[in-house]
């Protein structure tokens, strides 16, 4: 079949084009001289470009007719990429005005990862004129292309099979040198396309990298673009996209992770053109949540959030779905395969919502029991990795799972904390918050966070050693406001004070009206325990302290020893 712009061609011309398929190019030639001449003569006759897609054995897979300026290469994805990242196909086409390779030619070379792109100029008499060809270079860092100009086609002395074998080997060697391919983890390229300031972008990317690490991805590179205008189709500009593809190819990336949320169409377009899995920040977070959820409650909530996220992305072809569901995006909704349809997902969502309802009833009972016990309830909230679980453990000497990864805690844990004079409070640890917490997850975790409504005191724990702690405070406050949790019962607590300068600490605490702790050092808990006592049993504090407010007195030495259990 002849591809491209065949309308208006005479039957004889079509036949002449079809005859090309019967030919075979000798493996050591880019294209044989008589086939080149056949192409240029026919091209002049029909006044359109003609292009061939040829494999390394010399078999012609496509004959394409263009107009007088370009040809459009059909989908080649059924030809996979070799270990070197090249596709094993080259494109040889005619240029009616003997013009050099243009931008589209180069883009095709890069994006389709062709072995080579060649243009043969057509002379007035129909004979082959100048020959220009280009190929990718095996360089580690930037995408580089070598272009060769020959003033006359017949000067071509290239042994194609030797040439391509060498290039292939070099490209493959480069891959092997820099990359341990035996490690089966996904290799991710992180991408940010934002119109915010440089600092905000860097901070966000640093967090994305942490998220990726938590999800057990190998982060191989980051690409940041701050365009004046966003490209609605790919989010990134097409030049940048080309760079991404080349980098991904050279470093053997298997996954693109965007720091910005992508709409379903963008995910589809990007994964189609890059032939890689594409996920965004939300999906990465969902994936982490899916790995981490322990309790039935948590699992159901995460699965629900995942399904709700996937549902609108199910439009169109199966490929988008399979990409979305393969590998990293694929945990969680277990049975979900390419062929699953929306209706089944909707059914599942309904079932899960019902389950959650039932689980919720149990939760309400547990809550009531707790409230009936009449003990004050303290909840620790805060950005992920702030040290909430560590603080809970240290306060109550228990062993809730902590880890230097994001979202270590996905289920709330409840402990008793004993104060002197036989006083007790119930203290709970919660799931960590994060900036731009995916909408679907806020919904799903509302149930877990409902417990916060019962809290008499919310300890908002902040990792003061994080340079972005102020943004993190704002992000948490925003989520709390979204959850309609009043600020009256909030207490700001600055953690990881061992990591910040001793001189500045009192000043910062005063500025934010916060209490300092170091969750890994129990001797630092005095001011925090004092403050809790002051809030719950103020009458006792009056005797211990002349009634002065403690809040200003953040540099005071610990008056209270860690509670005994
Ligand atoms: N240097 C220092 N490290 C701390 C301190 N508190 C916690 N960490 C560390 O910070 C990391 C995160 O602690 P977690 O308690 O898991 O944090 P979290 O807020 O519960 O995190 P998520 O449950 O993931 O939201 C761990 O590696 C802790 O050891 C502290 O005061 N100083
Ligand atoms: Mg935790």
Task: Describe the protein.
- The chain has 18 helices and 17 strands.
- Helices cover 39% and strands 18% of the residues.
- The chain folds into 4 domains: 2-178, no CATH class; 187-285, 3-Layer(aba) Sandwich (Rossmann fold), CATH 3.40.50; 287-354, no CATH class; 373-544, Rossmann fold.
- The longest helix has 31 residues, at 342-372.
- It has helices at 11-18, 33-46, 103-111, 160-178, 198-214, 238-250, 264-274, 281-292, 296-310, 318-325, 342-372, 388-396, 439-449, 451-454, 469-482, 504-512, 526-536, 538-544; strands at 2-4, 50-55, 60-65, 89-95, 116-122, 128-136, 145-150, 187-193, 218-225, 255-258, 277-280, 377-382, 413-419, 423-429, 457-463, 490-495, 515-516.
- It is elongated.
- The strands form 3 sheets. A 7-stranded mixed β-sheet has the order 1-3-2-4-5-6-7, with helices on both faces. Strands 13-14-12-15-16-17 form a 6-stranded mixed β-sheet, sandwiched between helices.
- With 565 residues, the protein is an alpha/beta fold.
- Residues 315-339 and 544-565 have low confidence and may be disordered.
- Guanosine-5'-triphosphate binds next to α12.
């Amino acid at each position: 079949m002849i591809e491209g712009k065949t309308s208006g061609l005479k039957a004889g011309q079509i036949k002449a084009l079809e005859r090309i398929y019967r030919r075979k190019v000798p493996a050591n030639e880019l294209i044989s001289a008589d086939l080149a001449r056949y192409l240029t003569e026919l091209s002049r006759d029909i006044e359109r470009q003609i292009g061939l897609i040829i494999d390394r054995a010399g078999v012609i897979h496509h004959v394409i007719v263009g107009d007088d300026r370009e040809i459009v290469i059909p989908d080649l994805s059924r030809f996979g990429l070799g270990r070197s990242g090249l596709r094993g196909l080259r494109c040889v086409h005619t240029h009616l005005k003997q013009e050099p390779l243009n931008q589209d030619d180069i883009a095709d070379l890069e994006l389709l990862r062709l072995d080579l792109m060649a243009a043969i100029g057509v002379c007035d008499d129909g004979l082959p004129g100048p020959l220009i060809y280009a190929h990718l270079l095996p360089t580690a860092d930037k995408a580089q292309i070598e272009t060769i100009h020959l003033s006359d086609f017949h000067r071509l002395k290239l042994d194609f099979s030797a040439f391509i074998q060498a290039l292939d080997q070099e490209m493959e060697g480069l891959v092997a040198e820099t990359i341990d391919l035996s490690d089966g983890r996904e290799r991710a390229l992180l991408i940010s396309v934002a119109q915010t300031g440089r600092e905000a972008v860097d901070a966000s990317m640093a967090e994305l990298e942490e998220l990726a690490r938590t999800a057990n991805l190998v982060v191989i590179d980051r690409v940041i673009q701050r365009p004046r205008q966003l490209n609605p189709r790919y989010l990134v500009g097409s030049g940048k996209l080309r760079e991404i593809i080349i980098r991904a190819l050279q470093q053997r990336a298997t996954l693109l992770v965007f720091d910005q949320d992508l709409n379903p169409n963008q995910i589809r377009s990007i994964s189609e053109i890059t032939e890689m899995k594409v996920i965004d920040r939300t999906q990465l977070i969902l994936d982490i949540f899916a790995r981490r959820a322990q309790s039935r409650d948590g699992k159901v909530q995460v699965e629900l959030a995942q399904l709700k996220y996937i549902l609108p992305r199910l439009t169109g072809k199966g490929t988008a779905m399979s990409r979305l569901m393969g590998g990293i995006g694929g945990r969680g909704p277990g049975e979900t395969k390419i062929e699953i349809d929306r209706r089944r997902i909707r059914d599942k969502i309904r079932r899960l919502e019902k389950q959650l309802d039932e689980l919720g009833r149990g939760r309400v009972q547990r809550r009531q029991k707790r409230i009936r016990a009449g003990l004050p309830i303290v909840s620790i909230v805060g950005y992920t990795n702030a040290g909430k679980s560590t603080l809970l453990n240290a306060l109550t000497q228990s062993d809730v799972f902590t880890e230097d990864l994001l979202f270590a805690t996905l289920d709330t844990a409840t402990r008793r904390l004993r104060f002197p004079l036989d006083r007790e409070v119930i203290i709970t640890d919660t799931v960590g918050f994060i900036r731009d917490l995916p909408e679907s997850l806020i919904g799903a975790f509302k149930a877990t966070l409902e417990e916060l409504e019962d809290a008499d005191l919310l300890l908002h724990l902040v990792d003061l050693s994080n340079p972005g702690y102020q943004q993190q405070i704002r992000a948490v406050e925003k989520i709390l406001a979204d959850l309609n949790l009043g600020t009256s019962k909030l207490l700001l607590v600055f953690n990881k004070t061992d990591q910040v300068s001793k001189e500045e600490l009192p000043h910062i605490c005063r500025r934010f009206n916060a209490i300092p702790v170091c969750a890994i050092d129990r001797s630092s808990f005095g001011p925090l325990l004092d403050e809790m006592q002051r809030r719950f049993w103020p009458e006792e504090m009056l005797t211990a302290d002349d009634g002065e407010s403690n809040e200003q007195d953040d540099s005071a030495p610990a008056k209270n020893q860690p509670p005994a259990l």
